[in-house]
């Protein structure tokens, strides 16, 4: 859902300005995986969920002023198969993401700073559920892919975590987003 972390990965190529170019993100080789945890008194009775988010389009510029941006269609986020997948998918699209009202998730970097060999700290703006908030992500280049993890809170984006059983089982506010991004 907060798929916006991916941008950070794209700036990691140490290329001179003469050879730098804007590159398209390859949606077939890039993935966002959202880990949705559980909390509450009876959380042992609940399920943790994995959600995949395909990148619709995006670019990475690895020149002298690196930048990354991408878009995800919120209606294409998918709960990985499990016992109650259809019900969870419906709840995510209708009650959590409100995909009909907020069809896109966007990320655009503000700053990319090298922190070590083939590692970067990327800050930018993530737009989710009609709210735009700052996001910081740590990215590394591994085997030709920009990889990393970001943590966001649903409530920062105006989303109330889903609960059941009078609040005794709830989705955690904090979401972990792993990403692996490759350019064309």
Folded structure, characterized:
With 184 residues, the chain is mainly beta. It has one domain: Lipid/polyisoprenoid-binding, YceI-like (Lipocalin, Beta Barrel). It contains 1 helix and 12 strands, in the order ββββββαββββββ. The protein has one helix at 85-96, and strands at 22-24, 31-39, 49-53, 57-61, 67-73, 78-79, 104-116, 119-128, 131-142, 145-153, 163-164, 169-181. Strands 1, 2, 3, 4, 5, 6, 7, 8, 9, 10, 11 and 12 form a 12-stranded antiparallel beta sheet that branches. A hairpin with a 2-residue loop joins strand 7 and strand 8 (119-128). It is elongated and about 55 Å long. The relative contact order is 0.28.
Brief characterization of the structure:
By secondary structure, the chain is mainly β.
Mind sketching the topology for me?
Blueprint: E1 22-24, E2 31-39, E3 49-53, E4 57-61, E5 67-73, E6 78-79, H1 85-96, E7 104-116, E8 119-128, E9 131-142, E10 145-153, E11 163-164, E12 169-181
Antiparallel strand pairs: 1-4, 2-3, 2-12, 3-6, 4-5, 5-7, 7-8, 8-9, 9-10, 10-12, 11-12
Organism: Tunturiibacter lichenicola
Keywords: Signal
Domain Lipid/polyisoprenoid-binding YceI-like: 22-184
Structure keywords:
mainly beta; 49% strand; 184 residues; 7% helix; elongated; 1 helix; disordered N terminus; Lipocalin; 12-stranded antiparallel beta sheet
Instruction: Give the mean pLDDT.
Output: 83
The H-and-E topology, N to C, reads as EEEEEEHEEEEEE
Number of helices: 1
CATH fold category name: Lipocalin
Instruction: Please describe the biggest sheet, giving its number of strands, its sense, and whether it closes into a barrel.
Output: 12 strands, antiparallel
> Are there runs of 5+ residues with pLDDT below 50, and where?
1-19
Structural class: mainly beta
Just name the CATH architecture.
Beta Barrel
Q: What is the CATH homology-level superfamily?
A: Lipid/polyisoprenoid-binding, YceI-like
CATH class: Mainly Beta
- The portion of residues forming beta strands comes to over 45%
Number of structural domains: 1
The end-to-end span amounts to 23 Å
Q: What percentage of residues falls in helices of 4 or more residues?
A: under 10%
What radius of gyration results from the CA coordinates?
A: 17 Å
Shape: elongated
**Number of beta-strand segments:** 12
């Amino acid at each position: 859902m907060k798929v916006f972390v991916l941008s950070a990965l794209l700036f990691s190529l140490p290329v001179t300005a003469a050879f730098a170019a804007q590159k398209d993100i390859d949606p077939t080789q890039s993935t966002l995986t959202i880990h949705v945890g559980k909390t509450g008194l009876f959380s042992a009775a609940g399920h943790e969920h994995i959600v995949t988010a395909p990148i619709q389009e995006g670019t990475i510029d690895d020149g002298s002023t690196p930048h990354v941006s991408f878009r995800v269609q919120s209606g294409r986020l998918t709960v990985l198969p499990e016992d109650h997948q259809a019900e969870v998918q419906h709840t995510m699209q209708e009650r959590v993401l409100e995909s009909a009202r907020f069809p896109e998730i966007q990320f655009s970097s503000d700053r990319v700073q090298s922190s070590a060999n083939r590692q970067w700290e990327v800050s930018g703006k993530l737009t989710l559920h009609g709210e735009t908030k700052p996001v910081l992500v740590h990215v590394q280049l591994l085997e030709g892919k920009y990889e990393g993890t970001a943590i966001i809170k649903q409530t920062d984006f105006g989303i109330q975590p889903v609960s059941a059983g009078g609040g005794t089982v709830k989705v955690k506010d904090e979401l972990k987003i792993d990403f692996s991004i490759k350019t064309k």
